[in-house]
Amino acid sequence: MITSTYIEGNSFLHKTDPRIKIIILVDLLVLLFVPIAIPVMIFIVVLFSMITAISIGFYRLLIPLKMVLPIVIFILLLTPPFYREGNSLFIVQGKIILTSDGLEQTLRLIMRFSGITVLFFMFFATTTINNFILALQWFRLPYRTALIITIALRYIPYMITVYSNIQDAHKLRITEESGKKLIRRFKRVFPSLVSVLIQSIKSIPTLAMALELRGIGLEIKRTQFNIIKFNKRILQLSIAGVILLMTIWIIRFL
Question: Which of 39, 80, 124, 253 has a CB 3.0–4.6 Å from the CB of 5, allowing a cystine?
Answer without folding.
Answer: 124
